[in-house]
Amino acid sequence: AQSVSQHNHHVILSEAASLELGCNYSYGGTVNLFWYVQYPGQHLQLLLKYFSGDPLVKGIKGFEAEFIKSKFSFNLRKPSVQWSDTAEYFCAVNAPGGGADGLTFGKGTHLIIQP
Amino acid sequence: ETGVTQSPTHLIKTRGQQVTLRCSSQSGHNTVSWYQQALGQGPQFIFQYYREEENGRGNFPPRFSGLQFPNYSSELNVNALELDDSALYLCASSPMGQMNTEAFFGQGTRLTVV
To answer: Residues B51, B30: contact at Cβ < 8 Å?
Structure first.
């Protein structure tokens, strides 16, 4: 069975600070990797995804993530955060090929950006 | 905004009752998945429907059931509600048949069981 671990449950940063949110997964085979964001009162939105190829993927709003296969990690980064980045961030995995087992999510990281 | 819509947005039910939640998938998407998101937790996969049949299920009891209709919309039914069923229920749609794809989520239905 797949599992996802997000190390930081609550993170508080000041505007312009750099961000790195950790994500490790447990799965024996090839995986697809995702970061979703949930802004207050809004639906889950995809920030970025990794299927194959270049392990450094760029997403929306200046976010990027690096897949390190040897560490089973997919950490999310942003060089300079903004107040509008305040949200809940979820790392998720599924198996390629349709993913009939659905997405497995981590417990999320609540990010608060102080002006 | 995604094209996935869910109804109702909020619902209060009494323990032991039954509830039906509805989801309209994004245009062109033939696969619908349902997730339960308890407070302070990540979403947990309940099941997935493709071509009107359940083709994947998470660790949820049989009192959680669903339907998918020919227009790809879907229902989640929960019987014999328990207090622990209080959660945000999320619907996601995706285009099955593509090797690697993402899921698009609706805004969810907030269910409170009292």
So the answer is: yes
Question: Which of residues 55 through 114 in chain A touch B, CB cutoff 8 A?
Answer: 90, 92, 96-108
Cα separation of the two ends of chain A: 41
Here the tokens at position B21 are 């939640």
CB contact under 8 A, B42 and A49: no
Burial letters B87-111, b for 16+ CB under 10 A, else e: bbbbbbbbebeeeebbbbbbbbbeb
CA–CA gap between residue A29 and residue A35 (Å, rounded): 19
Closest by CA to B33, choosing from B47, B51, B20, is: B47
* pLDDT tens for chain B, residues 1 to 114: 568 999 999 999 999 999 999 999 988 888 899 999 999 899 999 999 988 999 889 999 999 999 999 999 999 999 999 999 999 999 999 886 555 578 899 999 999 999
Q: Report whether B58 contacts B72 (CB < 8 A).
A: no
Selecting from B48, B99, B104 the residue whose C-beta is nearest the C-beta of A102 gives B48
CB contact under 8 A, A100 and B55: yes
